[in-house]
## 1
Amino acid sequence: MVRGPPFPGHFLKVLPAPGASGGGTLAPMSDTGPFQRLYRVQQLDLDLDRLRAEEASIPEPLREARAGQERLNNELEDTEITLEGVEKRIRQLEQDLAGTRDQMARAREEQDKNAFDARTQSQYGSRIQMLGERAEEMEEDLAPLRERARDLGNRAAELRAEHRALRPRLAELEAQDEARVGGLRDQGAGMREERATLVASLDSRTVKEYDLIRRAKKGLGLAEIQGGRCTGCNVNLPVNVQQRAAQGKLPPVKCPSCGRFLIKLG
Ligand SMILES: [Zn+2]
């Protein structure tokens, strides 16, 4: 890759190995014309686009592990909120039950105090019976609630255990992904460096316009002429446009159909 470019087009199509870019490819590049350099800028831009897309695409195992953890978190949260509600109702009922039992105890004391008054005795008797029935109802309500609280508690413990079990695998996958993204960024750093050097050697207005076209076209700002056609939009180019493009003068000729800069390589 350090030799000069006898066939610039051919040379430019060869991508440097990741991390091997820089000085070796830059020296011959600066000998080429502005169009070849702009073409190389575009290759780097496309590679940087690809790196960004690759960085954003999360590997399936990590995606699944993250989703699994989130599912567990959500279910655990739901379970804990439900359990809290059930426990609150249990506490309320237990309080009411204790109050009812106190009332019963006091009613029994009063009944004992009036042991010789038959009418009062029977009044307290029916009050005690009523309170007893109410207490019984509360106990009946409490039993399924306690069972439900126990089930929810068990489920929460299960979910916490599953979450704990998933953690080392997820940490491993996250570390792998960090390394993957780091590698991609290192590759990108070399490309950005090469791009900056190339751009510094080019007419800034041409570069700015290329950037604008590329952004508007979501990909290519510069299209090669092949077989008399614009490779950007495949239109057949008028001969005078082809001739002007072949002269390789700035500002670059634009495709009359898609508006991209046209370049004739090799
Ligand atoms: Zn075109």
## 2
Amino acid sequence: MQSAEFRVKGLNEIATAIPSCTRCPRLRAYCQDIARTKKREFRDQTYWGKPVPGFGDPAARLLIVGLAPAAHGANRTGRMFTGDSSGNWLYQALHRQGFADRPISISSDDGLTLSDCFITAAARCAPPGNRPAQEEMNACQTWMEQELALLKNVRVVLVLGRIAWERWLRTSGWWGRLAPKERPGFGHGREHRFPDGTTLLCSFHPSRQNTNTGKLTREMWHRIFERAAVLVGEVAENSTPQRNRGTQRLSQRKAIE
Ligand code: SF4
């Protein structure tokens, strides 16, 4: 059962409430400490240093689920995947497919907008070692639950990494509804269509650990987003009111190309 602290009504209210969340003292202390000590190249900047809300289009059909803010990325800028290498990979790919109006995300006030896409994460506070504890992700799940309840057009879910895969399955309820052997597995490029029509698409996370080692290449990465765009396009074909949005986004993509 959710506490009153976590019961909010709309996406804007969720975005306003998340930065005040204090459920995980270890993570809050770490975020504040990073914000105080900073990284040399950002020493003149004021870090956000708080939990980071979701970001994107409330009418999105594509949902992207990440792991958690990076210490000197979203924990510095206050916007998901903004100001770090993973974000550079993500927004370039989103722009190529017409989901973002520019290929780079620098700061929370750079004017970037997403179309047909919303970004959320398993945890909203930067964790030490990029690894939130299980109980911290459990505590944070309530925020994604509330977002999912409001993102009524989502039909394609792209999970970035195994932790995001498990957290979305848990949050959406499929983890509990399916027996372990029936749950769709995680693997780069794997996809699964659920009975409610939602498609789950899996990708490795674009962390430096994966991109610097060649585990995730640009080609592999862009192929995932090409597939996501096709899946979203299939939704558009089956839904007249959504078709215009799909057409708009596709013409935006043509202009980019
Ligand atoms: S990780 Fe989530 S639940 Fe924990 S303090 Fe941050 S926002 Fe709150």
